[in-house]
Amino acid sequence: MLLVVSYLCLIGLSGCGWFSSEEQATQKTTTEETIGAVEETKETFQSTERSAQNSVLEELPEQMDETTKSFLKDFARKWSNFTDVYKRNQAVREYMTDRCIKDNSIDVDPHVEMKTTGKLHQVTQDVDDPTQYLLFGEEHANDVTRFVVLQVKVVEQKIDAIKVYYVRSAY
């Protein structure tokens, strides 16, 4: 916009005879060079922006460091394989913050015994909040296989919040 206004002012001034024909030729060349430089800058900016977006997209899968990934895999393995809910809770207690332990009644014995085996299929990290993860897996108990999604918030290599979702399939 500023370039257009500047260009129009130069045309207006040259039309009024303020510049000699030699100055007009110089001014016209300078204006054309300026327009060319602006176009090059615009193209460079767009190219840089595309490169930055691509590098961000390429970094996303690598954002989750191996320590956190290993931490979450160990947690999921202990969460999904147990014979007693209280023993399971005590096994995963070390992975949680005090707040998470309290919020989820990890220290309370529900007196539930059932052999459960499970496995983790995938761990994903939230793009907008890198402390949020989803753990997709399955649990098998009492001849029933249920898919489970654990939504966890990791703060300083501890789970600060957890939500457990059991998934039902219609077909």
From TrEMBL:
Keyword flag Lipoprotein: yes
Biological source species: Enterococcus gallinarum
InterPro entries referenced in this protein's UniProt entry, alphabetically: EF0163-like (IPR049982)
Protein name: Lipoprotein
Entry keywords, A to Z: Lipoprotein
Domain of life: Bacteria
